[in-house]
């Protein structure tokens, strides 16, 4: 029977090595503080909305998307390096008129908020439909609950995909490594793995004959995704940081 283990990224393996390195959060006090506060805020938002979610899933999931997006944008902008890092400084040619130099605040906003909103756009337009289709393939209702499934996919996308797009961009090779479980674990990739695993485990209570309101689609899926996100982010940034998943 095949087994799954987690090993150090530098260990010798027959699996082709990943070219990506673990993502390091920004080295400033704001990043160090918010990276730990952020999952608490995300879980608090979900806990606050849980009763409403059980009673009426569609409007609750819809109304929670905006605050979740704000929290995710604040997290990536404050704590993570954008893809590509700092742009190279253009050398001025002899006789060339010097253009206006953007201020420190303007440079910071352009370097962080613009990639953050672009990541949100890509997550909305690409990741959400893909994850929604994946939910259907894994057993979501096909002929009913269409909005439920779409909004569930949107929440999973915001949790798992937005930070990964922000730090890795849309490089095909990096995303192939992510899907193949070849990337070294960090808090961003750990959050993605935790979200997906949590959503998958969240499906377990649905068919059980407990006759509970919270068992209806997709309450347990979204709950598992949120808990998995916080757990994966924590473990990816601490105990499992720099390790890789290996199949034997």
Automatic annotation (TrEMBL):
Top-level taxon: Eukaryota
UniProt entry tagged with the keyword Endoplasmic reticulum: yes
Keyword Oxidoreductase in record: no
Polar residues bias locations: 1-18
Transmembrane intervals: 113-140, 146-167, 179-201, 221-240
Pfam families cross-referenced by the UniProt entry: PIG-F
InterPro entries: GPI_biosynthesis_protein_Pig-F (IPR009580)
Coiled coil: none
Biochemical pathway: Glycolipid biosynthesis; glycosylphosphatidylinositol-anchor biosynthesis
GO BP terms: GPI anchor biosynthetic process
GO cellular component, one term: endoplasmic reticulum membrane
Entry keyword set: Endoplasmic reticulum, GPI-anchor biosynthesis, Membrane, Transmembrane, Transmembrane helix
Membrane-protein topology: Multi-pass membrane protein
Subcellular location: Endoplasmic reticulum membrane
Stretches for region Disordered: 1-24
Protein name per its UniProtKB record: Glycosylphosphatidylinositol (GPI) anchor assembly protein
Organism: Neocucurbitaria cava
């Amino acid at each position: 029977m095949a087994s799954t283990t987690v090993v150090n990224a530098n260990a010798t393996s027959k699996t082709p090595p990943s070219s990506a390195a673990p993502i390091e959060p920004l080295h400033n006090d704001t990043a160090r503080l918010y990276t730990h506060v952020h999952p608490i805020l995300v879980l608090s938002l979900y806990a606050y909305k849980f009763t409403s979610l059980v009673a009426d899933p569609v409007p609750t999931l819809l109304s929670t998307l905006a605050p979740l997006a704000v929290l995710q944008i604040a997290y990536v902008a404050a704590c993570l390096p954008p893809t590509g890092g700092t742009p190279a400084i253009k050398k001025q040619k002899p006789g060339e008129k010097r253009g206006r130099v953007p201020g420190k605040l303007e440079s910071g906003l352009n370097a962080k908020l613009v990639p953050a909103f672009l990541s949100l756009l890509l997550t909305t337009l690409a990741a959400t439909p893909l994850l929604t289709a994946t939910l259907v393939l894994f057993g979501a209702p096909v002929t009913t609950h269409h909005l439920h499934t779409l909004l569930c996919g949107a929440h999973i996308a915001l949790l798992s995909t937005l930070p990964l797009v922000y730090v890795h961009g849309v490089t095909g090779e990096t995303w192939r490594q992510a899907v193949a479980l070849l990337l070294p674990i960090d808090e961003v990739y750990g959050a993605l793995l935790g979200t997906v695993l949590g959503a998958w485990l969240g499906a377990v209570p649905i068919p059980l004959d407990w006759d509970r309101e919270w068992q209806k689609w997709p309450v347990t899926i979204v709950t598992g995704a949120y808990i998995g996100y916080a757990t994966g982010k924590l473990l990816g940034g601490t105990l499992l940081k720099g390790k890789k998943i290996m199949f034997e």
